[in-house]
Amino acid sequence: MAKTKIAFTPIEDRVLIEPAAAETVSAAGIFLPNSASKTPLRGEVLAVGAGAQNKDGGRAELPVKIGDHVVYANFSGSKIEVGGCEFLIVRANEILAVINSK
User: Fold this and answer.
1) Which CATH architecture has domain 14-99?
2) Does the structure show a pLDDT above 80 at 46?
3) Cα–Cα distance between 27 and 7 in angstroms, integer?
4) Helices in 21-70 by DSSP H: which ranges?
């Protein structure tokens, strides 16, 4: 994933994700055509909103932070294009997991 600088901030409980690149080679080393590659359902968090407003007027803390690698639900969010790069804006509840790589 490229380290992309983004010039906007999502609102409320939304999260901006840079999707991971689609796999072009299988685990066995076979090159995959574009039609055979699966859309990745993981990516890197580039920006987060302030959180949804709760009943007390405060903001609910989001479960992810900038730099987290996450897995999100299929058909989640809205695709946007900025500077020729494609991004995804999803609600925090559409993020299924944070990938812990150690």
Assistant:
1) Roll (2.30)
2) yes
3) 36
4) none
